[in-house]
Amino acid sequence: MKDINEMLSDIKSELSLTLNAAEYMLWINGLTGVAYTTERIIVCAPSENSRRALEDNYAFKFLDACAAAGYPFKEVTFTTEKDAHLFTDETPPAPSAEEIAAAKNQRKNPFVERYTFENFVVGDSNRMAFSTAKNVAENPGVNPGFINMNPLYIYGGVGLGKTHLLHSIGNYLFENNPSVDVVYMPAHKLSNEYFSALSQLSSDSNALRKFEEKYSSVDVLILDDVQFLQKKGGLQDVFFKIFNDLYVKGKQIILASDRPPKEINDIEDRLRSRFEGGMMADIWTPSIDTRVNIIMKKLESIKVKLDDDVIFYIAEKVNTNIRELEGALSRIIMYSQLNGSRPTLSLAKEALKETEEKNDVVDSNRIIAAVSDYYHVPSADIIGKKKNKAIVEARMMAIYLVYDLLSLPLINIGQIFGGRDHTTIMYSRDKILSSLTGDGKNDKIIKDLKETLNVE
After folding, report:
1. Which end of the chain is more exposed for a tag (fewer CB within 10 A), N or C?
2. For the chain, what percent of residues have pLDDT higher than 70?
3. Is-contact 107 68, C-beta < 8 A?
4. pLDDT digits (tens, 9 = 90+) for 327-347
5. φ, ψ of residue 452 in degrees (nearest 5)
6. Residue 230's closest CA among 189, 178, 271?
7. Is residue 29 located within the same domain as residue 140?
8. Helix then strand then coil, % of the chain, to nearest 5
9. How confident is the model over 176-225, as pLDDT tens digits?
């Protein structure tokens, strides 16, 4: 039978997955167990102010964590040390193993239900990533022939469908292979949980071991945004152990990032090597044909019809990522409904007019245009293949400014500049950086261009 504080430790672990580290340390870490009944758990807060804040803001989150930990409490009472004696009546037996198992079986699907393989629009920009993700979902931990699918590492820019694929894998396993223990975790939440475990070491010497075992015991581990592991040496050490444990046992590891492993700075070489040791699949900006198909798929799901000229206008206008494409579509539909008129081409242009007029928003097109004007070199030549001195200088400056102002992964910058390899982008960036002295020629050019772009 579990002690009240053992139960509370399990509940705290669940809360650490949903709260940020500062929030957890401020409100949750200092809680102690008082008593429980079959339907209610009573916990002690360190002060009256804490008790009120917990009661007002955290009661529902606490009960959700109880359910996730397998304790079917329907009510939580927060008290203070002064009043704790009022609740110390006889505590009944802890929930039985059957009750805990039943509570766990009642968990909802943790994955976003709309993200499935069936509604993922496949094009040249994502075909490899889609195929490998589907293969891994159907055969987790199994390498077909000589192809190593473990880990699967999917990378690409923001809003291009990485998270959709990760949740598609999870949904497929949840529906078709429910016995598989699959965990999805963004890297920043993994980091929060790790530091929470560290903070518990003074009261629980096994806290870190429990953290490792939690993730080493799953069948499929999906870690999103792995670039957030950089500069976290202790967490990298622990994750390296988790990775190895899973790999040796033949369990599936799936990773996603906005950049390939070699572009993640401040990460251990041994971890980088593990990331590169399986199947790597990239996703890039969708072509206009794929963007048209994405719009049509979205219209089908929301049961709205648009004329072909409107669909093609949106696809041509928004060429950045899927998230912005769907945002533009939603804006046109809402604008149409508010005005009580059909979503015609003229209405679509009016709806997106505001976004067109946001010239203060710096993007790669504006940067290249500004560099083109400054150097008197056509934009097409800046992103093209010509190599005379004037064009190369303009190209390197444009690459540097895109890197400096937009903070994009090198591989994405390469795609902007005619599909160049990331090493070429790195060379151009470093060439400009090495020339900056504080008052030299390139320092002045950068200052002038930033003034033109109205940025600092």
Report:
1. C
2. 92
3. yes
4. 888 888 888 877 778 888 988
5. -60, -40
6. 271
7. no
8. 55, 10, 35
9. 888 888 999 888 888 888 888 888 888 888 888 899 999 999 999 999 98
CATH number at residue 90: 3.30.300.180
d(CA 155, CA 455): 29
Mean pLDDT value of segment 436-440: 83
CA distance linking residue 183 with residue 170, whole number of Å: 8
Given a cut of 60, is residue 130 above it in pLDDT? Answer: yes
pLDDT tens, residue by residue, 47-100? 888 888 888 778 888 988 887 777 878 889 999 988 888 876 545 555 556 655
CA–CA separation, 371 and 449 (whole Å): 7
Cα 196 from chain centroid? 20
Q: How far apart are CA 39 and CA 67, in angstroms?
A: 12
| Residue 268 shares a structural domain with residue 185 | yes
Number of C-beta neighbours around residue 59 at 10 A: 14
Q: Please give the residue range of the domain that contains residue 86.
A: 4-105
Residue type, 396: M
pTM: 0.59
Contact (Cβ atoms closer than 8 angstroms) between residue 166 and residue 184? yes
Whether residue 263 sits in one domain with residue 227 = yes
Check: CB of residue 31 under 8 Å from CB of residue 65: no
Burial class of residue 420, CB neighbours in 10 A (0-12, 13-18, 19+): buried
Claim to verify: residue 139 and residue 273 sit in the same structural domain = yes
Residues composing the chain: 456
Structural domains of the chain, count: 4
Asked if 61 and 54 count as a contact pair (C-beta separation under 8 A), the reply is no
